[in-house]
């Protein structure tokens, strides 16, 4: 039994709160709106029947779920919880689509890097071939690909 004498359900229904009240652990007197919401959607008698049919260890979760669903139904009388669930699924789908687009972009960038490296190797091989045919001295490859160094002895540069 609650300290104030009656739980929110018994106060709402204007009755005495028995010591074994099924509502008192889940609908305390200091939160009357909690039971009022559940009562408005499901009816007090139906809530009592539901709680009695459920094992005691699940009653708290059941009361919380009934309250949440009642709040959703009050806020959105047409869709209730289903509206929230639909919005969350839509958000998941949008996020998965965005993830797939980003993964595609990453793959494209990786392919561009690989293609650029292959083109650079092909150009170096081509220049080596031309250099061998014309007795042209190739510059030593540097560790930094953006850094260019002129060879010390280039016949046409002097």
TrEMBL record:
Keywords: Coiled coil. The keyword Iron does not apply. Residues 5-106 form the LOB domain. InterPro entries: LOB. Residues 85-112 form a coiled coil. The keyword Coiled coil applies. Belongs to the LOB domain-containing protein family. This is LOB domain-containing protein.
């Amino acid at each position: 039994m609650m300290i104030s004498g009656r739980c929110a359900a018994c106060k709402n229904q204007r009755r005495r709160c028995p010591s074994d009240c099924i509502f008192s652990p889940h609908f305390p007197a200091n939160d009357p709106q909690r039971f009022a919401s559940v009562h408005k959607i499901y009816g007090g008698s139906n809530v009592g029947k539901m709680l009695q049919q459920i094992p005691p260890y699940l009653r708290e979760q059941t009361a919380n779920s009934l309250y949440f669903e009642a709040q959703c139904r009050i806020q959105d009388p047409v869709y209730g919880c289903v509206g929230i669930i639909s919005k969350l699924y839509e958000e998941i789908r949008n996020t998965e689509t965005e993830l797939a687009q980003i993964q595609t972009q990453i793959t494209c960038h990786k392919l561009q890097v690989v293609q650029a490296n292959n083109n650079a190797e092909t150009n170096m091989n081509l220049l080596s071939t031309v250099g061998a045919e014309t007795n042209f001295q190739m510059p030593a490859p540097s560790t930094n690909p953006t850094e260019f160094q002129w060879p010390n002895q280039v016949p046409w540069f002097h």
